Amino acid sequence: MRQGWRAAALGAATLTMTTVVGCSSTSDDSAAGTPSSQTSADAAASAAATAAPGTYGAPVDPSMPNPTDVATDTPAITAPGETVPVVVTYSGWTDTSAAVEFGAYVAGIVEAGGTCTLTLTAGATTASAEVTAGPDASSTYCPTMAIPGAELAAGPWQAVVSYESSSTSGQSDPVTVTVP
């Protein structure tokens, strides 16, 4: 019962404040018949309604480049037959899968059907995993490549991700991963 009374009192107070604020004028000049100046909310709404599409207001730091320019840049596409860079996006041992996992993408080429290969090397021992690459908006992605820990001895391993298709090839810089 006590909470119902509080809720009713709170609702009445909110309604009263809304009515008072909604009925009050924004300047003393409006009572004298002089038009009041535009509120900042009205000015912002008016500016937004008349702005060109894609205009989002002034940048915080005017010396910085306009961020909307980046989205319209054309991707740099590598010609077929050239060597392309392979970029590792994540790497390392994963406890949940008990495996070494890698992700990567092939910069500058958009194509389907290529193969991404993760190769781990420790001394004379190697282990590898292959996945089929897929096209993305401006690159070719390599889905997660995993090599189970059961195939690997504990210690540091050198890892390289390579990519090969009928027209393009490349590889990443070496990355060291540690198997626990």
What would you say about this model in short?
The protein is α+β, with helices and mostly antiparallel strands.
What distinguishing features does this structure have?
single chain, 180 residues, alpha+beta, Immunoglobulin-like, 5-stranded antiparallel β-sheet, 4-stranded antiparallel β-sheet, 3 helices, 9 strands
Layout of helices and strands:
Layout lengths: L1 H22 L16 H11 L17 H4 L14 E9 L4 E9 L7 E8 L2 E8 L1 E2 L3 E10 L6 E10 L4 E3 L3 E5 L1
Antiparallel strand pairs: 1-2, 2-6, 3-4, 3-7, 5-6, 7-8, 7-9
Structure description:
With about 180 residues, the protein is an alpha+beta fold. It has a domain at about 85-180: Immunoglobulin-like. It contains three helices and nine strands; from the N terminus they run H-H-H-E-E-E-E-E-E-E-E-E. It has helices spanning about 1-25, 40-50, 70, and strands spanning about 85-95, 100-105, 115-120, 125-130, 135, 140-150, 155-165, 170, 175-180. The strands form two sheets. Strands 3, 4, 7, 8 and 9 form a five-stranded antiparallel β-sheet that branches. The protein is extended, with a radius of gyration of 31 Å.
